[in-house]
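Researcher: Quick one. two chains, 345 residues in total.
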Amino acid sequence: MTTYGSDIFERVKERFGKAEDDLSGTARSSTTVQHSILVLHFAPGEVAGAVKVLRDEFGFDLFLDVTAVDWPDRDPRFDVVWHFYATRNRVRVRVKTAVTLADPVAPSLTALYGSAGIMERECHDMYGIRFDGNADLRPILLYEGFVGHPLRKDYPKQKEQPLVPYREEAKP
Amino acid sequence: MNGRVIPIEAAGGSGKSAAFEYLTTRKDELIGWARKFSIFPYPFVTACCAMEFMAVSSSPYDTDRFGAALPRFSPRQADLLMVVGTVTHKQAPILLKVYEQMCEPKWVMAFGVCATSGGFYQNYAAVPGIDRIVPVDVYIPGCPPRPETVIDGIMQLQDKIARSQHLIVNDKF
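Model:
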């Protein structure tokens, strides 16, 4: 049985031919281990191929989540972050890619994981990341007519977009 | 019956036995007295305040002492809309629809600080107080409110019902 993570992490690193631990984590294409999670950075175009390798060759068969990180002062501004879990080896891997504000497009993984669809919809709601290949990016937590993406740092914290007109007496 | 709230006088003055022969009161107060002890709540329960709602409804605190325990899960049979927990903008149309389906007379209780003002949810999702959508009769603070606070709120609502005008009283009644 694989010891907790270390062996599979080495094999993943070898497979992708990445540099050894780069703890700065800022390089566009790097491999680090943070909190016993293997962290892989890829360019947006490489993500789908790399995840297919992770799934088919290393057994990362469970799509945990996809979310984004907004760095308001950075260009490219967003990190799109995926987490995968290998149920046989009981290890996790985190895949990151950076996308720009002008063109916030990441590849959809719905072809690899059926469960990716709704999580991509949530990420699209909250950060406005478009997932190329996901045909159904309707709002899932937000509602039709909501303007903007509330978890972006420049969304006004207390902005209200009510669905029901407020009562006259309640208006400030 | 609490004689302080509903003034009822025994006929005949002193010296008689304790059995009342007839009572006098105002029709308005009679209706108010009847209504304030038959508050059938509709629990619009959305969040963690539900735990406190269960605690205050069940035997240790027992809101049935105030006639306000038996929940009616049809808004058409309910008198009191108890909004227990955070209401989001996405949920606001449902709250309004439930309120509009309730028959007169009807009252609304904002149970807990989220229903009152949004509480600490000052963000894109939460309605900052349900009084923006429906009129509220009694606000209960706390996160969650103590059962004593809820009971105090129910008693204040009872006072309000007892004091208010009742449309059923007219020249034919």
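The two ends of chain A are 65 Å apart (CA to CA).
Researcher: Thanks, that's what I needed.
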